[in-house]
Please model this.
Amino acid sequence: MMTVLDPPITEDTSEQRILLEGVPWERFEQLSACFVDTRSLRLTYIDGSLEMMSPVGEQHETYKRNISYLLGTYLDRKEIRFYGRGSFTLKMPQRAAGEPDESYCIGSDKALPDLVIEVVVTEDALSKLPLYQALSIPEVWIWRRDELEVHVLEQAGYQRSPASRLLPHVDLGLLAAHARMPDQYDAVRAVRRSIE
Model:
């Protein structure tokens, strides 16, 4: 039986989330196939729960892009080898699937990213942490309430951490402050100058 939960009313009316419960994996795969070439709808599936988000709001995209540019600038200035993997579908068949907002391999290019970044502007109807945990993604950063939260994978699951384990010297407060700046170009230049 499928249960539909009403999406929350949000300030950003361009972004809507719907959560369906009791969805079989086969139904998720059928729906995914229908929207394979559609970037305006994102599907996340975890253990029978299906979140549909459409379209991604302007604020969401702005923060995603800002954080991506700022982190890329930091990694480049510190001469840390990285590979931006972007947003692509990660799957654990029969159990979970979803797209990170951004993802990175650190040190060398790999099949699965070392770091995933999620941007939550309104409310998370469905947390993707179980998906990332099932795939053993070492670290997840979540942008929420204008701050970066770091979640590090431990044996018992993700634990909130005050610092990144992958990038222990990155100043998360500095990245967050610059991600909030109204001008992306100025933010990137300011981070570049702070690392010189």
The CA atoms of residues 18 and 67 lie 26 Å apart.
